[in-house]
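Side project, low priority. Logging it here so it doesn't get lost.
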Amino acid sequence: MKGEVYINSNQENLVYLSSKFSKLLKRRFGKGPEACNVFLKGNRFYVYMRQFITPAENVLMNQGQLELAHNFRSTVMNSVTQEFIPEVSKILGISFDYFFHDWNYDKNTGILLLDQTQPNHEERIDNSFQTSLFHLIENVGSKYTKKPASFKIVKFTQNICAIESRDVLLPLEKLAYEKGNVDLLLHHAWNIKDGYWKNKEQFESLFGRLIEDMFIMWDYKNNRNYLVFIFNKLDTMK
């Protein structure tokens, strides 16, 4: 696995951006994450957050209102991210056109991805490993969703692996998006991610790394998604 690559940036800039984002979250939510790690590869910027559930969200979750908690967080996160993007673009010299986020409430973690319309980076990975990974994603995902037309590994380091899949939506999912049925898409997305979690050991065996976290971010407008694995920093599989 390769180390991080920083474009028009250095470690100090990334530390600054991590701190800036945490402060924005605290100002808007009344609570910031206990940990906020940032990663940059090509023209994609990732923010991984831990311990970020607010008291209001806890109340909703305890009452079984996970959907409301998600909608609340999404609304605030959209506002925070739109405020954050100009700062990131200024510091890194990169313009971003899209952003996506996903949350694991049971683990109290989340991820944000800033992306470009025409990203310029694809990882160079051993062909046999890449084929095995894509085959596993396809096999696991086939139980829950449409077979993607293509896969691409867009980030792969000792900390994180991100895979972009294109042409991923079934006709019913496209219709739900066009009709604005966000709740249906949300529950379906949770079901798909749960399916990947159930097969975590297969992915760990292939990576040779213990998986600490997993996210799927959906770009319904452009018919694609990002499957992201966060690896345990301390443990590797023997």
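Brief comment: The first strand starts at residue 35 and ends at 41.
Revisit when time allows.
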